[in-house]
Amino acid sequence: MFKQDVNLKSMFRKLSLICSLGAASSCADTQSSPAAVVPEGVWLDVRTAAEYASWHVPGSLHLPFDRISKEHPMVQEGTLPKDQTLLVYCRSGRRSGIAKQSLESLGYTVVNVGGLREAKTLVDAQRATSDTGSGEGTQSPDSTR
Q: Rounded distance, CA 72 to CA 96, Å?
């Protein structure tokens, strides 16, 4: 029963994420096929450098959550785009939640994707909906736990 509760919680988080983006005309549309609506944006990994080196979303930017500030070069130089949504993730979702608050206070639009598993799920969904069909660069983050 506990495993079912965890799976339902995970499904609810993903559905809430999709609905919060306003990407679907109604949440009921996403319940039949959640992977049909995938958030667009710039991936931002807020874990440590060692964690980032072990696995990260291909093409993601890296900025540890505890280094986010208006003085950071990525913020000052505009490496983090304010005209696109930042999709932040960490290992479990705790640090990405903190990063979301920090980045929003600096004027960014941010979605807390959560942990590695949620990030990988969304990356796989993005690949499934893209025309490229490429599976390159996806290796499971489960091996990093």
A: 17
Q: How far apart are CA 44 and CA 80, in angstroms?
A: 9
What pLDDT is recorded for position 130?
A: 77
Numbered ranges of CATH 3.40.250.10 in the chain = 38-130
Q: Check whether 135 has a pLDDT greater than 90.
A: no
Task: Assign 43 to helix, strand or coil.
Answer: strand
Backbone torsion region of residue 27, taken as left when φ is above 0, otherwise alpha when ψ lies between -120 and 50, otherwise beta? alpha
**Unique residue bearing structure tokens 């979702």:** 93
Question: Annotated catalytic sites, by residue?
Answer: 90
| pTM of the entire predicted model | 0.68
Which CATH entry fits the domain spanning 38-130: 2.60.40.1470, 3.40.250.10, 2.40.110.10, 3.30.360.10?
A: 3.40.250.10
Question: Going by C-beta distance under 8 Å and a sequence separation of 6 or more, which residues neighbour residue 13?
Answer: 114, 118
Q: How far is CA 18 from CA 11, 25, 38, in A?
A: 11, 11, 7
Phi and psi angles of residue 112, each rounded to the nearest 5 degrees, phi first: -85, 100
- 102-116: pLDDT as tens digits: 999 999 999 999 999
